[in-house]
Amino acid sequence: MRLPWLSTLTAVIVAGTLALAAPARADDGRAVSPTGELRSFYRHALNRTPDASGLNTYLGLAGQDCRAGVLRFSYDLLNNPEAARFLNAPDRQTNAVFMALLNRAPDPSGWATYLAMDRAEGIDRSTVDIMKSPEYRSRLNAICAGRTSPSRVGVYNGAEVADIVQNLLTAASIGMLNCGVTSVVNKMKKKAKGAVGLPAIAAYSAEISSMAAGTSASCKLAKQLALGAAWAAYIGSRNHPVYVYDLQTEDKPGTISKTVRSTYKIGWTPADTRTFAGSVKVAPF
User: Fold this and answer.
1) Which residues form the signal peptide (predicted)?
2) Which of 33, 126, 149, 212 registers the highest number of CB atoms within 10 A of its CB?
3) Counting Cβ atoms within 10 Å, is residue 244 exposed (0-12), middle (13-18) or buried (19+)?
4) Superfamily for 4-150?
């Protein structure tokens, strides 16, 4: 179902002076829920209502993990061939990312910044750039309040990425005795000096990859965490936002002796990630 009014509204906003006035509040009346968000994304990115398959698929993802699911369908709907046909110019793309992700029209500063970004790098970059903003994070928190969100997930800026990298390296060094990657992890930790240290940490990726992890579960996990740190550092060193999905699960929750599995998905976008995972057995002392 096509929505002719949306084309007209878009044309008015991008061609007239409304988008360049004081910060606009173009609330589209969506419900503060994954369903409300999904329907609005179909409207602003695809100019139609959701089909049954898309509705079931995307709401299924959000039902399993609200924050991860909403981030994924938000990215997917703004960055697919159908959206590219409708959002076929940078001004349309800029208007769409604001209306879809922030539920408002662009303010003058945002319009200038993201129009330039869409022209230079495309809508995939502007999508994740807005996802890392405090305004979007606040919206995502409200959308997923009280809903199942087992992972810690988000899109992060350079300073935050530096902290994440340092945390991964710290986790990689905990419990290590004589792992093959121990010496390299220790060298990487010495380079952890905020965002400026990211390129130096990223440079260890090939060295870590070439090392044998050994048979110890702790050493295997340490290698995975170090590789994840190097990958996050590489993306961050390119002055690009970093998507990080962090899920910690236990096979016997609430017991002393259990196996803890760590899963990280780290990448340029929610749809373009590498997975780093491993398990360790936690036993009573």
Assistant:
1) 1-26
2) 126
3) buried
4) Phycobilisome linker domain (1.10.3130.20)
Nearest to 131 by CA among 160, 154, 149: 154
**Domain-by-domain residue ranges, the chain?**
4-150, 153-282
Q: Are 71 and 140 in contact (CB under 8 A)?
A: yes
Residues ≥6 apart with Cβ < 8 Å to 16: none
For every residue of 196-257, DSSP letters joined together read: TTHHHHHTTHHHHHHS---S-HHHHHHHHHHHHHHHHHHHHHTT--EEEEEEEEESSTT-SS
- 50-101: pLDDT as tens digits: 999 999 999 999 999 999 999 999 999 999 999 999 999 999 999 999 999 9
User: Using N-to-C axis directions, what is the helix angle for 90-97 and 123-131, rounded to 10°?
Assistant: 20
- HEC-encoded secondary structure of 202-214: HCCHHHHHHCCCC
Mean pLDDT of 167-189: 87
* Beta carbons within 8 Å of 58's beta carbon, 6+ residues apart: 34, 38, 50, 69, 72, 73, 76
pTM of the model: 0.88
